[in-house]
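Purpose: get a first structural picture of the assembly so the mutagenesis plan has something to point at.
Setup: two entries, given in the order below. No constraints added.
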Amino acid sequence: MSADIRNEKDNARVAARKYAGYSRRRPASRKKIKHAVGMTLATFIVLFLSLLFLTPIVLTITNSFMSQSEIASNYGAVFATTANGGRRFVSARVNLKYIPDMVSFSQYVSVLFKSPAYLLKYWNSIFLVVPITFFQLMVAALAGYGFSRYNGKIRGIIFFSYIILMLMPYQVTLVPNFLVSQKLGIINTFWAIWLPGVFSPFSVYLVTKYMKRIPPSLIEAAKMDGAGEWKVFTRVCFPLCKSILYATGILVFIDYWNMVEQPLILLSDEDKYPLSVYLSKINSGEVSLAFAVATVYMIPALLVFLYGEESLVEGISYQGGVKS
Amino acid sequence: MKGFPAKKQNNKKKYKERSRVKRQAKYGSIPFLVPSVIGACVFFFIPFLVVIRYSMLDNPLSGNFVGLENYRLLIENGAYRKAVHNTAMFSVYAVPLGVILSLLLAMLMDLKLPFRSGFRSFFLSPMMVPVASVVLIWQVLFDYNGAVNAFLSGFGAEKVDYLKSGKAIAVIVILFLWKNLGYNMILFLAALSSIPQDIIEVAILESASPLQIFFRIKLRYLAGTFVFVTIMTLINSFKIFREVYLLTTDYPYETIYMLQHYINNRFRNLDYQALSAAAILMSLVMIVIIAILFVAEGLAGKDLEG
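Result (structure tokens, whole complex):
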């Protein structure tokens, strides 16, 4: 909605410049050539970098279609030692290859159909991460409203301690986490991961930052019309926060989707592990399967990303607290 | 503006009305905070107090109070010192690089390049790659027999086992940058596009050099985003440990033995008191860093209200 306004502004600006005689220079002035060269250079730099950034994701996907023997002949030099102890020379050096010689689905067949362990762990992942993401966002939306409505001393202190807490690496909160789970007797159940996840202050910070920028006049107007706090929240503030919640949700989802430490410490039953823990273990074993599992594992994140890239970008921009 | 004189006599009433509204906002919004605050207290803050207590006991079972003894032992511990040093070194490289490179990238993208949105997605794509396959690919790249060595030996360079040499920290910084530059870049892009163009145009008319425009105008407007990006980069610099741990296991090459390795290993030995003391010390450092960042934000963005 702001894009239209910006376009309009741009047009006006261009018109004004034309009027002032700016763009009516000689056709190929030196400055213009310089500018064109600069732009091409910049484009190439960015293109090069962005392709570098894209490489691992492409490699993961294309290599998942390679047969076991092809993987072995390409990466044998790296993994032969880790997999079987002794160095088994398959090829002297690594061959980074994007396109498989022969597209093979055998990896997928063995991941999806032959070993139910993967699917079970996949289900564990979904069952752990989706509730955390959803409820963390809900708690954060409520708290964000609470923090943004009034700016008192106590709230300031609470909010600051949230920020500190958010910055703590997992290794620091791990001890308190473990102690509480023990006390509550929820260790080795999904609750031990769900509950700390739901109350993690990360999204509270992001949502509050955004809610603080909702103009107070909007809320006051709603109040004039007789809306109570709850109604102001559900009808005015919550709908305004959709894109920030979406972007924050993606970050939270990806973060927990990749969790490794929490399950290792809080769950002792291996059947309860999410696929992320399991994935990190097959690395050293069956490399050929690892790419296929990784690809399957990436699908939810990719879907979310492709489906909502625009709102993700918009939401991230809001996280930065930019007024647009 | 309408009816200005008439409102004057209403001032007292209005004041009362306003304070009523304010009170309402204060108390009416407390219920919204309840779930989050209770949850955070139960799962983070109260246990944190317990951790503070643990850090002053000789061990949790016998529970003799020893004051700051654990802290003294910790600080004298060689492994801990090494871990602190390495973690600090990593942050010193990674955080400024992560912030500055992403700003440069955002400025390049801000030149109205073609296919901008395509590039944007490419730079964001590392967020989607599962940690495990990141580790896999980093192994393929930086192993002794890996792709980077294969590529460089084509130019006659000597092979290096990157993860087991002084270059290990560089490998991890690269991994960190690869993962986080895209996100930071989008934050900066948004901030750059929100700078009012009129001001820059005026500056150009007044024949300000591009450098002046950057330092005097743009940086001012970016101050808030700078602090935010720095905070997020700090958080992410701790999260990268997951990858580092999977790449290197419990006892990596000495320059990448991080604080998190230390804490993890203590946890395995159930050495709660050292663990607690380490956690508390780390929190104190974080508090100082955040406070500095916020003060800096206040100073830099002070004259830009609105």
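Chain B is about 75% helix and 0% strand.
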